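Researcher: Please translate sequence to structure tokens.
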Amino acid sequence: MTLARRHTIVEYMATTTFLAPETRGPRGFGSRLRARALRVAELAATPLVPSDYLDVFNPLRAGADLRGRIEEIHPETADAATIVIRPGADWAGHVPGQYLRIGIDVDGVRLWRAYSLTHGPRSDGRISITVKAVPDGKVSNHLVHRARAGTLVHLEQAAGEFVLPTDGGKFLFVTAGSGITPVIGMLRNLFPVAESGVVRLPRSEPYDIVVVHVAPSEPHSIFIANLRELHDAGLIDLVARYDDEHGVLDVADLADLVPDLQERTTFACGPAGLLDALGAHHEERGLKLLTEQFRVATLVAGEGGTVTFTGNGTSIEADGSRPILDEAEEAGVLMPSGCRMGICYGCVLPMREGSVRDLRTGEITTAVEGDNVKIQTCISAAAGSCSIDH
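Model: Translation complete:
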């Protein structure tokens, strides 16, 4: 501590009345003393404050920004891993099938992604996500191949409506690739597996579940052992489909694979192409369908252009075929984000002027200077030069 800094603290203590006459009662005494002591500590710690030091020693404490500590990493396939996390004290819990947003620093830039929780509530208080590394995926490849136990990550509370009703029913799960992750969370909650085998719970009896799970090949089928265990125990009916063995799934075949399809509500999670095909198939037949998707299907590309972020003067050259959010993050711009599907509006920023195109619909949004039109950067691509207030 410098001499000047000592003088500042001493002067503050000498000119401060710690026990004002009106606060000499027991309750006033404690609150005033704590406030004064905290102020002295903050002066001593500037530019850091006591909460900064607490973050160093106990980053998962109540009242801190919500974080988690990676405690275990379990490979599932060659390009997928389950990440077990100890969440902070303010974690509010989740319903099986929900997802969370996780923020992690990759090459000095904090990036956020959404991942499904792959367990129901656990007795040890931990949570888990299962991540599949995708080509050029900065966060997914980092978590699968580079993350280590002990790493701190940033968390947001669980969200999402892709959850089972609590009163049971007849359901069909159609999943492909990592689309199994929210479903396995539901199944593990309904049918937990102990060392002695699958546990049969009275609350799970009202559920009749068929799972059609698609994967490129059997070795690339995430959680296939867990699914087979539930199938062998008679708790679910598993229909495993492998592209290298059965060919790409044609949704028209579902009626043959699941004879009582008309009686079931379908939950589906997987690539956009599969979900689009299921949507058309089920709508034509009047079937109930609930879907979960973590990537935007690009139907119409923008023209591209220069995107300028007015807050820091950064400009990027966007080619118009990818979301502004992704292109900005790759250029090192720290962007707000959420579901990355155009649903949660966590990525919204004001566009001062310019044009963007909705990658899903092709719709153009324009702004002239002073408009500050709000755009979703996760689904919008540059359709010419534009200026964004960030």
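Researcher: Any highlights?
Model: The first strand starts at residue 67 and ends at 77.
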